[in-house]
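agent> call fold_tool(seq_1)
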Amino acid sequence: MSRGRRQSAGCVARGELQGSQRKEKRLLIHRALTRDPVDVESLQAAAFGPEGLLTDEIRRKVWPKLLGVNVYSLPPKPGRDVRQNHKDYNQVLLDVRRSSRRFPPGMRAEQRQILQEQLIDVILHVLRSHSELHYYQGYHDIAVTLLLVSGERMAMALLERLSTLHLRDFMDPTMDSTKHILNYLMPILQRESPRLHNFMMRAEVGTIFALSWLITWYGHVLSNFHHILRLYDFFLASHPLMAVYFAAAIVLYREEEVLSCDCDMPSIHQLLSHIPPDLPYEALVVRAHLLFQRWPHTELTREAALQLHKSIAIGSFLEFQQVASCQRPDAVLRQQREHLALSRTEAGPLLPPAEHSPLVKAAVWGITATLGAAALAVTQTALEWAPEFLLQLF
């Protein structure tokens, strides 16, 4: 076999794309972003596929679409008041100060300090905007990943959406919902490998070893930032429980290692708490996706001792998907913003819009570009009393 063919075969085995395949994937992503409405399913498929979304430049365009964030309606930079008299400020400050290893090696200390200050503001902005959300240690690991890729204002919008969707159960005042989410892990293992499941049950190892995996989306336990970004592409395009299925994929991949351990909690917990740096992440992404399709979370609810309506993240995901599928491409959103600004200049200032949920806000961005400023104002008012009606428009 020639050297070129051997290299190609090696790339296929590792789930890597060749130059022409990468170029074709970029083109498919561009087409999905410019389609009207945006082809969210194709963007999700790209995030699932080999190498995820390829580059940070593409992530800055696709991540907002996966979460239904309007890049032309980002929150303003936080002022000094965001830090004043906030109950979580000291804990956030402490966690961020200890997060130096989460920044790229070789980054100048001055630049890192600026980003850490921004990270504090990003987190406190979301917490101040949603009093129902409670900070947890590890939340900053997710926030810093968003900040490093997308910048301060975009990170604020993305983190706010994630906090009210995928991460919502982790942000309750107690750990009860988080423990319930972890309970999905063992039923998956039981169905895939009864032998492994029974071994772990006899050892009474539980699922606490995977806690930091889930609540940080593996950002706290992986040292390679490229691997972290690959998983974020996958999780942002997936159901909120996908991080649990990925945990199952890791444990199943290491099955023989686990079975070689002494059948006791300390031995297995120590083994699984440490994630090897050389895991085949592309293969694990594929397996996690297959596990989710093979064992839907609705079939695992009884074993997980979790009723569907008790999980806010799971219960709200279907509505979120419906809204996200109605997004307009950025070119249309930019035209809408310019048209609205022109209309306001000609007609005078409009009344400030009423506050409403992030999910319903996303639906406003799907309104056809032919709507004028007056129709938009009527729609904003309708949000106060009939958000279900707005969803029916799409």
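agent> call fold_tool(seq_2)
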Amino acid sequence: MTSASSDTTACFLALAAGRWTEMAAPTERCSGCGGGSAGCPGSVKPWLGFAVLLFTVCSLPTVSALVEGLYCGTEVCYDVLGVTREAAKVEIARAYRQLARRYHPDRFKVGEPGMEGETQETAEKRFLLIVTAYETLKDEETRRDYDYMLDHPEEYYQHYYTYYRRRLTPKVDVRVVILVTICAISIFQYYSWHSSYNEAINYLVTVPKYRIQATEIAKQQGLLNRTKEKGKNRRSKEEIREQEEEVIREIIKTKIDIKGGYQKPNLSDILFCQIVLSPYYFTTYVAWYMSWIYRFTICREEYGDEEKLYIIRRHMKMSQSQFDSLEEHNRETFMERKLWLKENYEVYKKEQEEEMKVKMATDPRMKRYRRWMRNEGPGRLTFIDD
């Protein structure tokens, strides 16, 4: 729009300047006749050219920030609400409510005092314009963009981009997005853990050791005593077998404490509960840490079994669930060898590394693997000469 206006201006100026030159020439030729006589045709033509030039410049369109499709269109939003650019939010809201009551389609009546010439259709259009003006000025960021557009009308491309970027950007609170994401992750966590737990139970039901123990417990509790059923209440063998399987499954669930990654899911372990309870966990940890320093660093108390196992777990760099999944005799071995002492743990660690090396050296599969690496290898190439 600016380039078109400047081109038009240049063309009209060039045209007018050429016309001025053509008109000025006869004036010089007619100088002999006095120049000012009414019969000399060139005496009035220069003024005609100047008038054409002045009219052309004045009639050129100026760059305006008020464009259809942006904010309030060709009207100023402040004028629509009848407020100044320095008006506060309270004044803008008050002006909007007053105008909305007058022009609302449900409350507008044709012929009301002060509304002469207004029809239902024009009132609806005016009401939409009032709403648009209020939506533009009530938000600080939108109002800042609008004021910038009024002050810099020549940057209309930037105004288009700013307006439609703000209009098309989803107006969703970031906190809501974070909350929904955390809830989705928590639900996925719970059902994933529940699926893993059911897989572990299904496997334990097939293990003879646990199945026999569960069957004996069920018989002691009288859950597998088959009574003779007659008449309509008599069940088929398949139904009896399904019931027995369900009883064994429930006993394994209640009697066997599964540790590690297949343990029974707990709501307090999911991400949402962990975040909600994080202040409590942090306070508890700080209190426990201060108590540890006071008891074992300042007062020099002897470590208890729980503290010894904690230090051993820290030496081994294992999580609580990983440490709980170890067999009981392993933990007894740790306590017998006093692995909470750093020097004892270093000796134990070296022994485990040596034992692992011997096991790998004597393993037939490792021997085959080393032989394969020596003879062929994963990256060995064979070239065939022609």
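agent> summarizing second result for user.
Residues 1-44, 56-63, 377-386 have pLDDT under 50 and may be disordered. Residues 174-206 form the longest helix (33 residues).
agent> awaiting next instruction.
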